[in-house]
Design brief:
Blueprint (H helix, E strand, L loop, with lengths): L2 H16 L1 H9 L2 H4 L4 H19 L4 H11 L5 H15 L6
Helix pairs in contact: 1-4, 1-5, 4-5
């Protein structure tokens, strides 16, 4: 598992722990309610929606919120933050300045 996957999985676990109703929704949903999705896809969709909503409530984008949660869990995200900073600088054409 990559560090980015670890960060994402950590965030989803935190969101699930804080939102037990998502587990109940998944347990109670009908085949029609899945709209062609698998139960795993539906669960992932609900967790992602809850994560994005929580991030917005903190006025953060979802990735920044996930990094914050990872740091709170003791995961070293400095390498990821550096990679993201370099990618942003390259996209803006200012990577030579870093």
């Amino acid at each position: 598992m990559t560090i980015r996957e670890q960060i994402h999985q950590n965030a989803l676990a935190i969101i699930l722990a804080a939102n037990p109703q998502i587990t109940r929704e998944c347990d109670e949903i009908s085949e029609d309610g899945l709209c062609g999705m698998s139960l795993a896809e539906f669960r992932y969709l609900r967790l992602t929606q809850a994560l994005e909503k929580q991030a917005r409530s903190h006025r953060l984008d979802a990735w920044t919120y996930q990094l914050m949660l990872a740091e709170g869990a003791g995961i070293d995200v400095s390498v990821v933050r550096d990679e993201d900073r370099r990618a942003t600088a390259a996209a803006l054409g200012v990577d030579d300045l870093l």
